[in-house]
Specification:
By secondary structure, the protein is α/β, with parallel strands linked by helices. It is built from 23 helices and 9 strands. Helix content is about 65%, strand content about 10%. Helix 5 (about 130-135) runs antiparallel to helix 11 (about 240-260), helix 7 (about 175-195) packs across helix 8 (about 200-210) and helix 13 (about 285-330) packs antiparallel against helix 15 (about 355-375). The model is unreliable at about 30-35 and about 485-515 (pLDDT under 50).
């Protein structure tokens, strides 16, 4: 029987290097069905009856990006015989976050500690035996570039796959998170086992609000309400949101594990310098002013210096070409409609669009510099908590700030966001920010309709756009999720609707949007059955009897 392995790990952890070492040139590259996410499959040279798939690099199994969704669905519904979890030994704390989620899937698994040569070369070490005992899965140190340790990794992986050696139950939660996870697990245990879903992993996904799992389990409205109550109680006790509570739980365990098993290498001068810089870039009070100064410099260089200079050059070139073509068409005595179409339509229209190009290119150049330097990740970290309250992540902050300069490059900048939901939300909210093109319109309306208070109206319009954007975000945050739940719900809630009493529309639970939606559906079915006509006839009969009395 052919064995199937899945390589899973963070980006830039050496996963693809290991895949190439295992398969050589005997591999196939394609896309997963329905998405533009690349997948690579191959046969292991040292084990001809074993295949391996190189899954996209991810940092967690939360369904925010298409890569994470593809990886999660493959591991859940097309289970490999074993997972080979590749970890960057030089950055083990970050890598272990994904490992804890993979262990919860209850699939045979081996951890490959890659880049061990770099770790030991800088004076660090890892207690492999202690880490194996704690994580309950085999841990093998390797160096994928040279192939050192890969043979032992394959031997352990094949052994685990053939014997179906599952990770032992790893319970590292405590406090309110422990209460929420175990309460939800007890509630859904029967349905989870019926659907062949890992219990603890499914419970954590329901806490995160993953609607795919609620749909797969076919949860009733009462069960959803109970789960919501558990989650709300956990958030209130911890005074944080559900995603942060789960992340804190995992990182607390990782911190304790690394303190017992990992001897960190000495910090280099560059690392110490980076820590000092991070102290100010992520500081509680200094981070925002520093960000304002940096983005102000970027905007100034983009819109007033470099971008404006390049735009002027391009505009002059376009004007010169337009004038030359205009003279040529005049000399050739081209018909006026065609002349106007070419000059006023094509050249003027395309030229107006092209004039934005230098500005956009310049802006993306500076954003790429900030992204590659790691500064954008620090800005996202600083702004994440605030933007989560309106349903966005910290990464959405920069495109929305750019929206105050121009909405066009701001919307284009949103394509860099990892989450499709964040991209759509940011694109929808960015036009509420008052860009430079809106200000002349504001001033025109303010001067025309409020001449005595033009300045005050300008300020109100400017900041009013921000307020409306925040309100729209809060509305979309709830409505997008509620709308999907309304379409997927199977239970009836509420009491009486459209004059149809409880015996007609069976009801229980709270009068939520889901309940109303389903009650309307059932009411329509009742109406088609003719019961409404019978009720109307009975009402008319009662009125006639009352008049007779």
């Amino acid at each position: 029987m052919k064995l199937h392995f899945a390589l899973v790990g963070n980006q830039n952890c050496g996963k693809s290097t290991l895949f190439n070492y295992l398969t050589g040139s005997n591999q196939h590259v394609g896309n997963f069905p329905g998405v533009t996410v690349q997948k690579k499959e191959g046969t292991i040279l040292a084990v001809p009856d074993a295949g391996v798939i190189d899954l996209p690099g991810i940092y967690s199994l939360s369904p925010y990006t298409s890569e994470e969704i593809v990886t999660r669905d493959l591991l859940l519904y097309n289970k490999p015989d074993a997972i080979i979890n590749v970890i960057d030994a030089t950055n083990i704390e970050r890598s272990l976050y994904l490992s804890l989620q993979l262990i919860e899937l209850n699939i045979p698994m081996v951890i490959a500690l890659n880049m061990m040569d770099e770790l030991t070369g800088s004076g660090g070490s890892i207690d492999i035996k202690a880490m194996e005992d704690s994580l309950t899965v085999p841990v093998v140190p390797i160096t994928a570039n040279s192939g050192e340790g890969v043979g032992e990794l394959l031997r352990r992986a094949v052994d685990v796959a053939q014997n179906q050696q599952l990770p032992r139950r790893l319970d590292f939660c405590s406090g309110p998170v422990h209460t929420a996870i175990h309460s939800i697990a007890h509630l859904i245990e029967t349905k989870a086992r019926r659907q062949n879903l890992p219990l603890r992993f499914t419970a954590t996904k329901l806490i995160e609000g993953d609607s795919d799992f609620a749909k797969a389990l076919q949860l009733s409205e009462n069960e959803c309400d109970i789960i919501g109550h558990f989650v709300t109680e956990m958030e209130q006790n911890l005074k944080t949101d559900k995603e942060a509570a789960l992340a804190d739980m995992r990182y607390a365990y990782i911190e304790d594990l690394c303190a017992q098993t990992v001897q960190k290498p000495k910090h280099t001068e560059a690392q110490l310098r980076s820590v000092k810089i991070d102290h100010y870039l992520t500081h509680k009070f200094y981070a925002i002013p520093i960000f304002v100064l940096i983005m102000g410099l970027v905007f100034w260089l983009t819109f007033d210096v470099i971008g404006a200079f390049l735009s002027d050059i391009l505009s002059n070139v376009i004007d010169a070409v337009t004038a030359s073509v205009d003279n040529t068409l005049t000399v050739l005595d081209i018909a006026p409609p065609m002349h106007s179409l070419i000059i006023d339509g094509i050249f003027s229209g395309v030229g107006a669009v092209l004039s934005f190009l230098p500005t956009i290119v310049t802006l993306f150049f500076f954003l790429s510099m900030l992204e590659d330097s790691g500064y954008m990740a620090r800005v996202a970290f600083v702004m994440d908590k605030m933007l989560r309250k309106i349903g966005l992540s910290g990464s959405s902050f920069v495109p929305m700030i750019i929206g105050f300069g121009c909405s066009v490059p701001a919307i284009m900048a949103s394509r860099t966001l990892a989450s499709e939901r964040d991209r759509k939300m940011t694109i929808l909210l960015t036009p509420f920010m008052s860009c430079s093109a809106k200000l002349p319109i504001y001033s025109l309306f303010a001067a025309a309709f409020f001449p005595d208070y033009a300045g005050l109206v300008m300020v109100l319009l400017y900041f009013g756009g921000i307020v409306v954007g925040v309100l729209a975000a809060l509305l979309l945050k709830g409505q997008l999720a509620d709308f999907k739940r309304m379409l997927d719900a199977n239970e009836v809630g509420g009491t009486a609707l459209l004059g149809i009493s409880r015996p007609v529309v069976k009801a229980h639970g709270s009068a939520s949007e889901v309940g109303i939606c389903n009650a309307v559906r059932q009411a329509m079915e009742v109406a088609r059955s003719g019961i409404i006509d019978d009720i109307a006839q009975n009402i008319d009969k009662m009125r006639i009897e009352q008049k007779a009395e």
